[in-house]
Design a protein that fits this description.
The complex is a heterodimer. Chain A has twelve helices and nine strands. By secondary structure, chain A is of the alpha/beta class. Chain A has a single domain, classed as Alpha-Beta Barrel (TIM Barrel). In chain A, strands 5-4-3-2-1-9-8-7-6 form a nine-stranded parallel sheet. In chain A, strand 4, helix 7 and strand 5 form a beta-alpha-beta unit. The radius of gyration of chain A is 17 Å and the shape is globular. The two termini of chain A are 32 Å apart. The relative contact order of chain A is 0.17. By secondary structure, chain B is α/β, with parallel strands linked by helices. Chain B has two domains: 144 residues, Rossmann fold (3-Layer(aba) Sandwich); 215 residues, Rossmann fold, CATH 3.40.50.1100. Chain B is built from 16 helices and 14 strands. Chain B has a six-stranded mixed sheet with strand order 3-4-14-9-10-13, sandwiched between helices. In chain B, strands 7-6-5-8 form a four-stranded parallel sheet, sandwiched between helices. In chain B, strands 1-2 form a two-stranded antiparallel ribbon. In chain B, helix 11 links the parallel strand 9 and strand 10. The longest helix of chain B has 16 residues. The termini of chain B are far apart. The chains are: A alpha/beta, B alpha/beta. At the A-B interface, helix 3, helix 5 and strand 6 of A face helix 8 and strand 11 of B.
């Protein structure tokens, strides 16, 4: 697993991870968004590789992906945009996307490029556990990439144990059965789910995603989990305020 | 080599289940139960009773004498257009609604392109008194108005898919999103042999009734249970899977798959996946897929809303890849002409999807004593507006 991810979790603080779509709002903003996020206090970044048919995402992320692709984003260009990023940014960087663009790039080539650039891990929601273990686990390990799996409130205890066993970084806890950006805030049902997962004493730390958009939901989500991910709400802010809005947005989450 | 799905849902290198974890429990529940439920006596009885008394099966196997004479060979039409609701789609929706009931689901979602699957789903939901939501591309809602009206009369809610090309692919994305957001009470009735395992295998099994009937009917008419060729149009490929099913592992039967070339395979307005596609992942399955070099899914085009899909089912990808199937692509123009010809020679107005399969004879020659069975997958009523516009009727 990536040392950077390991150290970040060992810090013990409640981590704020931000998802954004590469090439959004403008094609060449990717690097500036990453730098600004680190400067503003984000602990980890998920760089979204846009896909034409993001079926697990809601309208906000789909719209940003469409705009990024129309602007000319593609896999090789993203890698070019990330050249030398490790001279400027220290926090863990992961690439999150759908499996087909990775498959077309060539899974091994994709992994090699990630390693060269200092990418720490991949989150590919439609690459399920069984296919990963059968075909790709060795490759990911060879190139030092952490593969992050998702669990949801519907995931059985047995399967959570399997995923925990197969994970070597952290587990992405989807807060509810939903596509991204659908709901805001957490009721009692969510807390029961968070409690249940916490009581399982997993080997890997957990990060909560989906439905987090402000300091309240961040606090609730991280009461027991090790961190939380903000995606759609961050993209909505970027759409409205652009890169200058990042500092205030992050401060609004972590300083309150 | 077998051309059926293996235990992991693979046809050769195609198939599988590439789904986000949010869908895993739904798909896994289905995977663990579908074969067992389908084999239960009570399920079989209810399924077969509904197919005969409600759908009107067996559908005739009709020797198209004048059409055959035109091309100097023996052409039989498997009349799926005579099924209740006007197409083969209902074989599968009857099966899946019974499956959904066995799994304790009380809400149904579906995607539709031409509207035939949407109508077939709305129909079985009305029959069973179950809530029904159908996703349909906004463009398809425009061009298939009669089917939209039918679905609404049957009590279904029709939700326009506004993303992407606003056609079948996008309707499928929206249906999958609905399923992610409603994981426990909802069953997703996929209309073709696409999607994550076990859908391609399950849908193919429900549609296999078509070739099972052909075996019996040909025995009566030709004294043998198999034709020399089975022919069907392929969008996702459910009618094709149905007519091929019993013959997949019988090499003496030629398998011909007909895809929509649209305005021409190289025109940039086509849905001919076998010619234009590469291995990729769409809607949870590894298959042949029309895409950019970068793995973004390409917008397909066909005059027929039902063939307007950028992939094919994994069974068909494997038939192409292995050479077991012969793939032919037919343009809009060729299909429309063939549809008109069948109407005038046989008094049967076919769906434009089916017209693609009927159009192969101008280029693909057969021997006079070859026995060819074409799956006449649907009737053309829903396409009348397209026929009217095209021929200025």
């Amino acid at each position: 697993m990536s040392e950077r991810i390991k150290k970040t979790f060992e810090s013990g603080k409640k981590l704020l991870s931000i998802y954004f779509t590469a090439g959004y709002p403008e094609l060449n903003d990717t690097r500036r968004v990453i730098r600004e996020l680190e400067d503003s206090g984000a602990d980890m970044i998920e760089i979204g590789l846009p896909f034409s048919d993001p079926l697990a995402d809601g309208p906000t992320i789909q719209e940003s992906s469409t705009q990024s692709l129309q602007g000319g984003m593609h896999t090789e260009l993203l890698f070019q945009q990330l050249e030398g990023i490790r001279e400027e940014v220290e926090i863990p960087l992961l690439i999150m996307g759908y499996f087909n663009p990775v498959l077309q790039y060539g899974v091994e080539d994709f992994c090699r490029r990630c390693q060269e650039l200092g990418i720490d891990g991949l989150i590919l929601p439609d690459l399920p556990l069984a296919e990963y273990q059968l075909h790709y686990e060795e490759l990911f390990k060879k190139y030092g990439l952490t593969n992050v799996f998702l669990i949801t409130p519907q995931t059985s205890e047995e399967r959570i144990r399997q995923i925990d066993e197969a994970s070597d970084g952290f587990i992405y806890m989807v807060s509810s059965a939903s596509t991204t950006g659908v709901q805001q805030g957490f009721g009692e049902g969510k807390q029961a789910y968070f409690d249940r997962i916490a009581s399982m004493k997993l080997r890997n730390p957990t990060i909560v995603g989906f439905g987090i958009g402000d300091s309240d939901s961040f606090r609730q989500a991280t009461r027991q989990a090790n961190g939380a991910i903000i995606g759609s709400a961050f993209i909505r802010m970027l759409t409205a305020d652009g890169i200058p809005g990042i500092k205030n947005f992050i401060k609004g989450i972590i300083d309150n | 080599m077998s051309y059926h799905a293996n235990a992991r849902g693979y046809y050769g290198r195609f198939g599988g289940a590439y789904i986000p974890e949010m869908l895993y429990p739904n798909v896994e529940e289905l995977r663990q139960n579908y074969l067992q439920i389908m084999q239960e006596e009570s399920f079989q009885k209810e399924f077969n009773d509904l197919l005969s008394d409600y759908v009107g099966r067996p559908t005739p196997l009709y020797f198209a004498e004048r059409f055959s004479k035109q091309y100097n060979t023996k052409i039989y039409l498997k009349r799926e257009d005579l099924c209740h609701t006007g197409a083969h789609k209902v074989n599968n929706t009857i099966g899946q609604i019974l499956m959904a009931k066995k799994l304790g689901k009380n809400r149904i979602i579906a995607e539709t392109g031409a509207g035939q699957h949407g109508v077939a789903t709305a129909t079985v939901c009305a029959l069973m008194g179950i809530e029904c939501v159908v996703y349909m591309g906004a463009v398809d809602i425009e061009r298939q108005a009669p089917n939209v009206a039918r679905m609404k009369m049957l009590g279904a809610k029709v939700v326009p898919a506004m993303s992407g090309s606003k056609t079948l692919k996008d309707a499928t994305n929206e249906a999958i999103r609905d399923w992610i957001n409603n994981p426990t009470d909802t069953h997703y009735i996929i209309g073709s042999v696409v999607g994550p395992h076990p859908y391609p295998d399950m849908v193919a099994r429900f549609q296999s009734v078509i070739s099972k009937e052909v075996e019996i009917q040909l025995q009566e008419k030709e004294g043998r249970d198999h034709p020399d060729y089975v022919v069907a149009c392929v969008g996702g490929g459910s009618n094709a899977a149905g007519i091929y099913y019993q013959y997949l592992d019988r090499p003496e039967v030629g398998i011909i798959a007909v895809e929509a070339a649209g305005k021409g395979v190289k025109s940039g307005h086509s849905a001919a996946t076998s010619a234009l596609g590469r291995e990729g992942i769409i809607h949870g399955s590894k298959t042949l897929l029309m895409q950019t070099d970068d793995g973004q899914i390409t917008e397909p085009y066909s005059i027929s809303a039902g063939l307007d899909y950028p992939g094919v089912g994994p069974m068909h990808a494997h038939l192409f890849d292995s050479g077991r199937g012969e793939f032919i692509s037919i343009t809009d123009r060729q299909a429309m002409q063939a549809g008109l010809m069948l109407s005038q020679l046989e008094g049967i107005i076919p769906a434009i999807e089916t017209s693609h399969a009927l159009a192969i004879f101008e280029d693909r020659k057969f021997k006079p004593d070859d026995v060819i069975v074409i799956n006449l997958s649907g009737r053309g009523d829903k396409d009348l507006n397209t026929y009217i516009d095209y021929f200025k009727l």
